[in-house]
Amino acid sequence: MNASAAHHPVRGILYMMGALALFALLDTISKSLASRHPVAVVVWGRYFAHFLITLVVFLPRHGTALFKTRRPGLQVVRGMTLLGTTGAIVMAFQHMPLAEVTALVFVAPFLVMMLAVVFLGEKVAPWRWLPVVVGFSGVLLIARPSGSAFNVGVVSVLAGACCYAVYQILTRKLSAVDRSVTQLFYAALVGAATMCVLVPWFWVPGALDLRDWLMIGSLGVLGASSHLLMIMALRAAPATTLSPFTYAQLVWATLLGWLVFGDFPGSMSLAGMLIIVASGVVVAYSERFNRKA
């Protein structure tokens, strides 16, 4: 932790809240596009626009240092896990409401804790597994495997959450050797390059009108802006301080899902969302105390 991180927690929280609002807006636009166009086209637009904006913003400031990484192979793998996360979530948007998708993605911190034990050798006190178990009970309330709520969207978003958990583990490992801007650049590069190869198979000439192109462009602006705010937040305050506030994205997603798509979670889904949030906050605070111990 650097000195500045200890002195500006309020600023860091405000940056984080802004980033989460932009993430929720980005997901809202992605869901709208995915209702009319193939997933591959939406994901391509999201990454290609993000990549161009990243180059414009960071290349003049950092020059060729932006491309320098000590672990290029791991950066590619990390980029692919983020791409898998995005693709799975956009696919889930075609089948599920915005708020439920967002809530299920929040199982990722529980998965990260499990993976950190296996791959990073982190020690976890036995009592810290209780909120993980409780959190997965919230997932069952939303997904309801034996009921009508369970569909391909649930499978897709849970696969995306698994990819996102691996992405976070790789981010932890790479943070020790590469700068944040380098990680941001390679994530955008890998996603854009991969989708440029895949998107011709799904492209329908003339399918995108002016409004669609503007929406696709906004994905890049929102994606780059939200990631920049996230980086600024982590510079201003430690991750353990910010983690509990990440669940504000679920509030934004619920509000936008209701206003834009007319979707409001039912009682079972709301209960599951609250359980996931409560369990996630406990995991976040236990992480803080574990690091202090």
In short:
The protein contains 13 helices and no strands.
Radius of gyration based on Cα positions = 19 Å
User: What helical percentage do the residues reach?
Assistant: over 70%
Low-confidence stretches: 1-6
**CA distance, first residue to last residue:** 15 Å
Order of helices and strands: HHHHHHHHHHHHH
Beta-strand portion reads under 5%
Mean pLDDT across all amino acids: 84
Question: How many helical stretches?
Answer: 13
Instruction: Give the CA-based shape.
Output: globular
Structural class: mainly alpha
Annotation, overall tally of beta strands: 0
Number of domains: 1
**Most strands sheet:** none
Keywords: Membrane, Transmembrane, Transmembrane helix
Pfam families: EamA
Transmembrane segments: 44-64, 76-95, 101-120, 127-143, 149-170, 182-203, 215-234, 241-261, 267-285
Protein name: EamA family transporter
Task: Name its key features.
single chain; 293 residues; mainly alpha; 13 helices; globular; disordered N terminus; transmembrane helix; EamA family transporter; EamA_dom; transmembrane; EmrE-like
